[in-house]
# Entry
Amino acid sequence: MSWARIAIDRLRNGEAVTIRPRGPRGHSMRPRVRDGQSVVVEPCDPLALEPGEVVLVRVKGRDYLHLVKARNGARLLIGNNRGGINGWVVPSAVHGRARDV
# Structure
């Protein structure tokens, strides 16, 4: 089960959630998001997201709190704050947008 499963379920119900992302590579979003830092994530319209926004997203079977790096029509390129790229996703892969970090 994903570390974010409870948060994702609440986001699907239209609720904002507070998460503290942690991971084996917990520094990939520094300095924007530190490992274990509280982040408020809210439901969003994926079609309104812009590059630079932090999103809770599923890429290739894994959940990440990462950046929108680019968009191509409705598709979004997801990556971390250290130059790493996870890949392109469709709007339904986006669970929510970080509102407060």
Notes: The longest strand covers residues 62-72. The domain at 5-100 is CATH 2.10.109.10 (Umud Fragment, subunit A). The mean pLDDT is 91. Residues 5-12 form the longest helix (8 residues).
